[in-house]
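One such given next:
>
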Amino acid sequence: MVTVPARQGLEAVDILRRADRRGVAPAVGPVLHDGACDTLGFLVPPGTAAAWDMPGSACTRTDGRGLRLPDPPELPGPDGATPRPADWLLPPGTGGEVTDPVMLREALGQAARLIEAADGCR
């Protein structure tokens, strides 16, 4: 699971959903938000954590056991340790799709640039 700050994650969800509407396969899989809406968690394929190095995000390594869908797991809080209750922003579908890590990386980068541009206009 890749966790990111909520603002960047929401922008990335929008970017990925627009790609999905253009027919570029299911671009975004299930997405969780923590109870305080500080972070979003994108479900990604197993093995993603081994190569994930995007600044401002974290990829939690899991062997897949203990993560039962559709019951949302807890997300790490901003300190990286304290778990927070979560709920689905985009619930899992029946096909078991997850977010492609390459597309997610591109969307998070684009989201960061959009946020930087918007904050610079103030």
